[in-house]
C-alpha cells in the first residue's frame, strides 16, 4: 500500500521512514550520513526522500542537535592572491561542490590582517558554523594558534607551522612530487637542472625543493646557485627564470614548483630565445586544468588532485562532527606525473 503524506502537510521524517519501509531512526541515520546503515536502507530512504519531496527542517534540527548545517572555509591569504590565482579559485570551487554534495552550506572567510583575525575568531567561536576547513600555510601565521582555542573541529589543508600534535591534516606528497618531476628530467638526459621554488615560508614549497634537491644530489652551494624563489605567481616565475638564465646560462631543464610560475617561466624562456623542450625541458606542479594543458607548449606537470584533497577534508570533518573515534594525523595523498610536450 502506497504511503502518502497528508495533501496539505509538508512531508515528515515519519512519512519518509514509512515510505521506505524502515524505522524512523534508520531514516534519520541515512539523512545524517551515518555509516551505520545498509546500502539497501540508504537506497530506499533516498528514493523516498526524492518521491515525497522531503526537505529537512533545519531550524528544528539545529535546536535539537545544536548544529548549523554550515562549515567555514578559511584562507589565510591576501584577497588579491585568492582572486587572481586560479589555484585558489579551484580550491574554493571544490570546497563549495564537496560541501553541497553533503547538504552543507559553505561560509568563506578570508583572513589576512590582525583585524580579520579577530573578526574571524569571534565568528568561528560564536556558534555560526559546525566546523572549519583551514588553509593556513605561511610561517608566522597566527591562525593555527587561534584555531586551537576554538570550540569546534578543524581540518587543515597541508601542514601549518608550529606543533602538529592533535591536528587533523590532509596533505599531498609534495616532496615525492618534486622527486618525480626531477627524475623525469634526468631520464630525458638533462644535465643542468635548475628549480624555480615557491616561497620558503610554506611547507609545500620547501618539500618540493627538498624533492628536487634529493633527486639531483644538490649541495648547499648548488641550492644557492641553481634555485630562485618565484613567489607562486606568474610574474615571479618569469623573473626567477630570467635570473636563473643569467646565472646558469648552460641550464637545460627546470622544475617549477607551480603551474602558474611555470607559465611565467615559459614566457621568460620564449623571450630569451630558448626553445621548449629542445633547449630547456620544463616540468610544473599542480597539473591545474586551467593552466597546464593550455600553455605553449602544453606543460608536463606533477598532479596534485585538489578536488580529492578537499573531499578528504570534508569527509574527515564530518566524521569528527559525528564524534567518531578518529586519531589526529597527517593524511598524505599521492602525486603523479602527467606528461605533455614541455618535457
From TrEMBL:
Keyword Transcription among UniProt keywords: yes
PROSITE patterns given in the database record: HTH_LACI_1, HTH_LACI_2
SUPFAM superfamilies given in the database record: lambda repressor-like DNA-binding domains, Periplasmic binding protein-like I
Any GO MF annotation of the entry: transcription cis-regulatory region binding
Signal peptide segment: none
UniProt entry keywords in alphabetical sequence: DNA-binding, Transcription, Transcription regulation
SMART domains xref list: HTH_LACI
Span of domain HTH lacI-type: 11-65
Top-level taxonomic group: Bacteria
InterPro entries according to UniProt: HTH_LacI (IPR000843), LacI/GalR-like_sensor (IPR046335), Lambda_DNA-bd_dom_sf (IPR010982), Peripla_BP_I (IPR028082)
Protein name, as recorded: DNA-binding LacI/PurR family transcriptional regulator
